[in-house]
Amino acid sequence: MGKLLAIDGLNIVRRVYEASPEPDSAEKADIALRHALSSFRKLLGAHGPTHVLAAFDHGGPTWRHALYPRYREQRAPMPSFLRDALPGFHAKLAGEGLHVLMLPGVEADDVIGTGVLRWLAEGRGEAIVASTDKDLHGLIAHGALVWDHFKGEWHDDAWVRNKFGVAPELLVDLLALMGDVTDGVPGVSKVGMKTAAKLLNAYGNLDAVMAGAGILKTPVGERLRAEREVLYLSRQLVQLKTDVRLGVTWNMLAFETF
Hints:
nuclease, about 260 residues, alpha/beta, about 50% helix, single chain, exonuclease, 5-3_exonuclease_C_sf, FEN
């Protein structure tokens, strides 16, 4: 059986870069990317994958921006020094035997979601996602595991339940209810993680919550009814697109240890 390692490239690169307190510069970008390359090598050595999907955001508008123009409008752009250095970094990854996927119109999360679900559906073996991104933890419901490279810990079904208060299959509904300030996903006003988890565990899923919202004589019920359209828009925004045309074969993503 094989082992797929899906790496959320910018999740590693941006965290390494932002961990340094120095002002933006070409030198800072160079140092950060050297550390990021070391992180990639450690991931490959630690997990021993047979296949690697190294996904990066292409940049520019995506299908989520078309759906909701304010998506990620508050997020700071990537520092220009780092952006300019990325093509050279991708070339180094290619030198390590990796095939970098960076597709216009979609995010790296969508690329990873598509690849991981396809791999698991075809029964090719285990799938590991190297990322700290909340959205990607929903893949645990389908049999994947998430590896936090920075903390050196596994995230599984029990971890998600302990962290978010719901099962992995309800994570999308939870994020839709509570929203995501980082990505500009609106969610429902004044609904945080605990309230969202309580609603989902009581009713079963988001559709069931909304079916019961009509009889909820509480401020939360009023907001759910009033913000129904925003809520379902939020669910679309946080849900992974899993039918991306990746343009690669498994043979192209095969990885051999040198």
